[in-house]
Amino acid sequence: MRLAVIGCGYVGLVTGSCLAEAGHDVVATDNDQARIQTLNAGRLPIHEPGLDGVMERARAAGRLRFTGNCAEAVGAAEAIFICVGTPPLESGEADLSAIDNVARQIAALRSPKLVIEKSTVPAQTGQQLRRALNVYGRDAGGAIFRVASNPEFLREGTAIGDFFHPDRIVIGVEDQESERQLREIYRPILEGRFHCPVHQPSCPAGRAPAFLVTTIASAELIKHASNSFLGLKIAYANVLADLCERLGGDVEEVTRAMGMDPRIGPQFLNAGLGFGGFCLPKDIQAFNRLAERNGVDFTLLKETERINKGRIDQLMEKVRKALWVVKEKKIGVLGLAFKPNTDDVRFAPAIEVVRRLQAERAVVRATDPVAIEKARAVLPGVEFIEDPYRVALGADALLLLTEWADYRQLDWKRICKEMARPLVIDARNALSPSEMRALGFEYDSFGRPELSAKPTLVTA
Ligand SMILES: NC(=O)c1ccc[n+]([C@@H]2O[C@H](COP(=O)([O-])OP(=O)(O)OC[C@H]3O[C@@H](n4cnc5c(N)ncnc54)[C@H](O)[C@@H]3O)[C@@H](O)[C@H]2O)c1
Predict the structure, then answer these.
(1) What is the mean pLDDT of residues 189-196?
(2) For ligand 1, is residue 278 a contact (CB within 6 Å)?
């Protein structure tokens, strides 16, 4: 099928490349002309493992093109995926101006098309979008548009695998033709007809993804409800970590046992510095504001936001407690991205921590395997160094803020010798407290106090 993708960010590039790999003809567009030039030069503006290979194959097969001209992308398409950003406004509500802008451009076309919201949007945006398309289209003497919602659940860092092997594909539609088209678009994914870059030579046999057909409002709600619930789980684990620090338990032992209960599940129970990125924080805020606006008390989400923001205060308190005076101390920072395997620093807790350290006049040196360039753009006054050993050299403290696997593999014995004071605050509970202390570090993390009781968890 001929498809257009509007917005060449994380979601647009993954969606466009994977659907082209699955056999569709995709033209992708963005209003950032520099981004289009980068893409047309064969380079990626983002770091996402495996995306380069999928994109290259699709382009070589002539199934994926990039253009800065929205009308050209949309003109020949039978269905259009809107993948533009929906950042938070000052009020916490989602800024839908990019969606409105795109609606105007699509409406200028005179042929009826299926317009699919893939961006994360509050419930009832679909209705507004349909209305806007038809109002703007009337000026152009134009056509009737159909609208659908198809929320995206990919995770940065594993986005290609997530797109090809989703747990579920949710489509919110209001007519049979839209459902038919979306089934057609996703048929190759549902039937496993694509070259999977994640599993070679072939994907393991498994369950086909569930294909859920809902109303548009339900599909919109599903995305916000899922992200909010994930944030809530993390916040819960973080409060448990605080309790463990007071009572002498070990949060990892607690959450591990909790996660073995299939009604709870083990994921998103990691205590530490809290969540960040371009999804969870803004989606929780937007969901909460949506509830408020509609007279529904969702204090639970307000608390989730509050607890999450408080994690940074807790870390700063640990830093102050350990260093006594922060001013002029040399602090090394390991990790800037909001999570491992991405270069995305939007709403990354690490960025806020560095800002706070700077506000207290610490001398900050920082590193990240792939996010230095993006961090440099938002953090003036920081010395960025690629080599983590040079970040640690002569430092009064080292803060581990993103749990990259590389950091677990560092030669910590060497680091211990080379720091001015071997003090590590592990804000992601990535390292073993007993091993770090045995090496001679002063070591702190979240919810794993030194004198915790050590009951044994017996596993099969
Ligand atoms: N990043 C994720 O992990 C993720 C996962 C699921 C859903 N989402 C949702 O998907 C949406 C996009 O997220 P993202 O991370 O890809 O954002 P992004 O900022 O990386 O990409 C958005 C792109 O849209 C472009 N754009 C903005 N306005 C435009 C316009 N008027 N015309 C054409 N292009 C325009 C921007 O230049 C940018 O390249 C958001 O609503 C987000 O909440 C993101």
Answers:
(1) 90
(2) yes
Query: pLDDT value at position 139?
Result: 67
Q: Can you tell me the distance from the alpha carbon of 255 to that of 146, in angstroms, rounded to the nearest whole number?
A: 45
Q: In what order do the strands lie in the sheet with 383-384?
A: 383-384, 363-367, 330-334, 397-400, 423-426, 442-444
- Predicted confidence at residue 451, as pLDDT, reads 64
pLDDT band (50, 70, 90) for residue 452? very low
279 is catalytic: yes
Whether the predicted pLDDT of 454 surpasses 60: no
Total length of the chain? 460
What angle, 0 to 180 degrees and rounded to 10, lies between the N-to-C axes of helices 216-247 and 251-259?
140
Q: Which atom of ligand 1 is nearest to the CA of 12?
A: 16
Neighbouring C-beta atoms of residue 287, cutoff 10 Å = 26
Q: What are phi and psi of 132, to 5 degrees?
A: -60, -45
Nearest to 82, CA basis, from 73, 94, 93: 73
Residue 296 is which amino acid? V
Query: What's phi and psi for 393, nearest 5 deg?
Result: -55, 120
What is the 389 CA–ligand 1 centroid distance (Å)? 35
Three-class SS state of 421: coil
> Which tens digit of pLDDT belongs to each residue from 403-426?
999 999 999 999 999 999 999 999
Whether pLDDT at 293 is above 80: yes
The beta-carbon contacts of 407-410 under 8 Å, at least 24 apart in sequence, are 407/334, 407/335, 407/431
- Please state, rounded to an integer, the average pLDDT across all residues of the chain: 95
85 C-beta closer than 6 A to ligand 1: yes
User: What span, in angstroms and rounded, lies between the C-alpha atoms of 397 and 108?
Assistant: 58
Q: What's the CA gap between 234 and 227, in Å, rounded?
A: 11
Catalytic residue among 18, 70, 279, 416: 279
- CA distances from residue 325 to 322, 332, 381, 446 in whole angstroms, order as listed: 9, 16, 20, 21
Token pair of 74 as six digits: 């949309």
Q: Would you say 151 and 173 are in contact if contact means Cβ atoms under 8 Å apart?
A: no
Neighbouring-strand partners of residue 29: 6, 67
Least confident of 140-144, 378-382, 391-395: 140-144
pLDDT value at position 109? 80
- 222's tokens: 């599903």
Whether omega for the bond prior to residue 201 falls within 30 degrees of 0, making it cis, is: yes
Q: How far apart are CA 315 and CA 427, in angstroms?
A: 7
Burial of residue 415 (CB within 10 Å: 0-12, 13-18, 19+) is buried
For the stretch 304-342, pLDDT in tens is 999 999 999 999 999 999 999 999 999 999 999 999 999
State both tokens at 451. Answer: 């004198």
